[in-house]
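Hey everyone, long-time lurker, first post.

I ran two proteins through the pipeline my lab uses and got sequence/structure pairs for each. Pasting them in order. The first:
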Amino acid sequence: MVLAEPTGISRTAGPVRGGIPLGKGLLSDVGIITCDYSVGTKKEIEAATWAMSRWPDGSIRWLGIEFQAPPLAAHSRQQLDFKLKTKTAKALASSFSPTTENDGGLFEIDSAQLNGPLSFSFKAETAFGPPPSRLSVGVQTIELATSQSCTLRREDSLLSDDGREVIRFITRATNYRDSNLVHIAHTMEVVRGTHFNPQWSLQLPIKNPGKELDHRQRNEKFASLDGKSRTHKLSGVHQENNLTVAMTDFWKLFPTGFKRTGEQLQILLACPDADDHMVLEPGVARTHHLWIWSGDQQPSEEQAVAQADAPIVPFTTPQWAVASAAAGPLMKPAADSRLDDVVEMSIDRVFKFAEKQGHHYGFFDWGDFFVHDGTLSYTGCINQEYDPAMVMHLAYLRTGNPQMLLRAMPMARHYSDVDIATTGGVFQHRATRHHADAWIAKVLADGFYGSIKQAKGFDGSPESLLRIVKKKNQAMARGIEPLIRPLLDSGEPAHEITRIALEIMGQNIVNNIVNKLGDGGDDMTMKRYCDGIAGSTLARDYGFKNADASFERFFDLYGGSWDQFPTFHVDNSPDPTARHTGGHSLVEGVIFGWWETGDPRLLEVALRVGRHHVEVLVPQELGKLGDGLGGDGNPRTRTVAWPLINMCRLYEATEGMAGQEELHAELYASSKECAEALILVPFERIEGSIHAGVTMEALANWHQLSNDQATGEYLVGLARYWASNVFDKRSNAFRYKAHQTSNAARGFSGLVSYGLAYAQRLNPHAATWKVFKQAWTEMLKPQKKAKPMAMTLRSAARAF
């Protein structure tokens, strides 16, 4: 076991938790493991373990572990040799006393410095949908109890007047054996409605009155200290009277703050001003982590910041991690030092470039990368593009460098909260453009309603609306009905379903108009794009006549202007099949984050993604792939291949997981369906190297899982076809498409590389191997932008 201090701050003894990869057949049962640790006086360290996931033979694949770590000097690295001990230990009891008061109270922390329960508060204004009106108190359960810690989980909800869930709060509280430290993870999830100017906080009642203060981090440059603005970055630590409170990534998740009044400390989790234009839309979430020390032994401010932002995570040696094969095939450490150098340089450059571009931090943004090139497709967040966090996770496994984990984890947590909806659907990189489309669709919906409300037979219900639409446009009615059917079955109010159906009609009109705007659609500015839609007779007939006038309220709500158009993570398209597609649906970085740290929030979200995949996304995308095969164009295979990659990894994660047996079986069945559909696509009809690369990676993962002969044969054939027909010898890189004039880039080679290597392993072929080696040489060059970095390097360490 290796403990590494990555921040340059010495650490006192304290609890640590992480995950260790194990080889197949190495360990079947969990138990207490011990280590004789000696600094002056010999001392035994006792660690608790649990199975996070298992190999198909039942042995443990990833082992959860936690223990009281010894003190660590700054930048030190210590190896602890643990041995399995046939010993059981009683699970630690919770030190938190629950409260059932309907006032936001959560539980009391066992501390002489506190005087009452920790509680939360949330208020916001509502722009669309049902406003929250009353609190429903949840049930407190034990999520994980070992001999070293106990974690409680509680779920509370703000409900609408008619009893529907609007905002959900998930709180996890962990106490540790022989420690005065507690950890609180508090999550807010938006289930329904669009809300703005949220005021969200946790309250700690402190026994003794203290000095009043109001310190807030306004943005990445400025803080407000008791009402006075200064160029400053607050530490995110509050200390007084044997009490320390530290918030993870405090200034990076602004606007945040601490407010001390009377006998209460408010931890401000979101405290925007009106001109911050903070808007919470359905599907978005945010988790804040608090670390609280109470009693005589207190950390310094620097130690508290280090614990919050860079907690020590136990791991193992790179040799052990790679040899275990728990993460799949990986190049041996130092097998090609050029790769390690390129990965490290690329990651450094990517983060420096992102920070220089701005908008890298904030409530929605920390852990994501942005582009601001003014085009419709790529204005906004691109964390969903090829999973840059995976590059860092795999580099961490291969090198043991804790800096890789420190950079990967904010991205994994951001992705699980902000880029994955509460339903498990994954948002895509076109969310900014879709916000403009959805706003226009709202305007058109008003026009539709005005023309329909007097129609004979219309009573305001969605059924009557569909009858009227069917008389005028049967195809549109057939398209709308399956989209609103889940809402009808779930009992949503009829007037809200009717409104959504009208907005879907508006979205269809927008799509039809955009298809006629010409080949330059993606290169237009947002203003020109919206003006182009407003110039259509069809849009004008239903009320969208002037983009400036129609978007006044949009900019009032979201901020920005045509020249500085706001960017979005959350896709608010009224059409759920546009909100969540398979084209860039990713979850591997979240799964690796859970495996490596044991963060239960990441597992919770990953399981939601798995459920959404098998129930919604895979049937949707298989239908589209079938339609594409039946048409004249090229079917978009990556929309099925990305879900297959995700499900193979989720299948590994849920192997042997109690309570997930049904999902585990469904993941396998859905993966099989995806693979069987992909191998029906003729090689020459695959659109380009992006689709081919993702498809080959998906099929390689499935073949490794299933050893399916037909999959292996197709993969070998596709790899040889692509190496023979799409490789550009002049640039030593693969072209985007097969024709000679298509651009070539090492990012395309990066995506194709794993499939080529896997096919070569199945059936060696000299010409294919030669192409791989030529592409590999060109790939080993540093990148500075997140998307090409992830494209080029996500599979490099797995391919060679």
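...and the second, right after it:
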Amino acid sequence: MLKQKLTSWFKSGGAGAPLYLVGGSVRDFVLGRPMKDIDLACPNARELAKKLAKANNAAFVPMEKDPAAPCFRVVNRSDPTDFLDVVRFRGPDIHTDLADRDFTINAMALDLENGFPQDPMGAILDPFNGLDDIRKQIIRSLGRKNLKDDPLRILRAFRFASQLGFEIEEKTLADCRELAPQLERTAAERITHELITAFEAENSYSVVRKMWKAGVLLPIFPDIAPMEACQQDGFHHHNVWEHSLDVYEALEGVLGGLDALFGEYAPQVRECLEAGRTVPMLKLSALLHDIGKPYTGRYDEAKGRTTFFGHAKKGEALARKALGRLRLTNKDMDFVCLLVSEHRHVEQLAQPVVKHKTRMAWYRKMGDFSVACAVLAMADNLSKQGRMCTETERSRREKHLMEMVREYFAEAKGALARPLLINGNDLLEIGLPKGPGLGKVLKAVTAAQDAGQVKTKEQALALAKNLHRQIK
């Protein structure tokens, strides 16, 4: 695949000048992983990229945000996903370029001056034994200075550990621990990218815990300190932060067992959870879902334990502040904050004593996000291992939450997709006055429609008139 792609761009065979495939492109080629980007390095990046663009009738796109490392993208006009990134050597030659990179597994190069090599594995330039570290599944930095020069590389070490399933070499891990406070001077957008990419891996829990142990998470989420200091009793057996890590772990277990948990509805659940960045945002929600507890804890002498009434609402505000520091998109921020604010509510709604009409109103408010919220609540439930929470109780709550998800797909989603029987104009036409009361009536009629209590426009209007008389 790589050979075919490069051959399609370099139709004459080779570049005819010093040119190397570098960085993660070489690593992924060795590992047989799909390549997201093809990174090329040479001494005259701008000139080569322009030449390639002209020869292939492609677009030439300068990407020079970092003057020290300008990148020039050559894009296939017919297929924007087909592109090459060409960068200038970091120094006078390829050897100094590789020495300036982050990890041994990313400090390899493949010479393309004369075309794609017949024996590419044998032609890899590997001055720092990256191939050996790939075989050993080790992430090893090129030195403490390389990490200090760009502290984001600390996070990248854990991101690669999460993506590749590799272990971070001990000296590198020690350097990451020592330099972790330097992350405070790193651009929030760069940090967010690395975090989210790490969270995208199916089994990232062990890496997230190592990030915490290495002190890497605290500069990013200073709220961890009060969470770690906040003890819990009753339903929990860990402090708030340890419990949040437990929920993260349990969440990955739930996500890996959707078929067993939801049966025939598993494909629909999976479709909801795989939309956009739902999974990494769901995992971020697991870490922040109890962020409000340190500020709402009160010891209840009658109950003999600490309670945290209102922690979800307080948590929503704190989560929004924390995510604002990370420069998360408004869409992602709203999703995480919604789950933080609703993670307790959904567990209460799942109880059999709750009226179907009440749940329908919540489904209308949440839409497909109700599925993610229920899944988060299931993980939270599994992590409640305190003296007041028995296995029987956990099983009961899990069953109710699963039934709620099934109800959403079997009944609610279809019902909510149907057009509303009436709107505000209809109410005005039958003589209802403008004002707050109009909205209350419309909301009540909508809830009655969702519950199947009214099925025609005439029935809806009749109910509206009756409700209006009661409000008056």
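Reply from user beta_strand_b:
Welcome! Quick read of the second one: The chain has a mean pLDDT of 92. The two ends are 72 Å apart (CA to CA).
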